[in-house]
Amino acid sequence: MDKNFRILFVDDEQPVLNGIRRIFQARRSDWELVFAQSGEEAIQKASVIEFDLIVTDGKMPGMSGSEMLKEMKTKGITRE
User: Fold this and answer.
1) Interval 18-48: pLDDT, tens
2) How far apart are CA 42 and CA 72, in angstroms?
């Protein structure tokens, strides 16, 4: 694999993100995992890092997962 597959996980609950980190620990050499605890933080990270996949919680305080994805699309951060 030429480059690591980059995945952004977004969830407002740190224990969920910690569990995801543990589950994917064995694939560390293949996948670059990045974590965000809010839609705003995810948008900031996606503005500077290109992700192959974004996995988000649907219900988060402040900005839902679908609102976050719509904003990323509007700003041209995500690919179609």
Assistant:
1) 999 999 888 888 889 999 999 999 999 999 9
2) 9
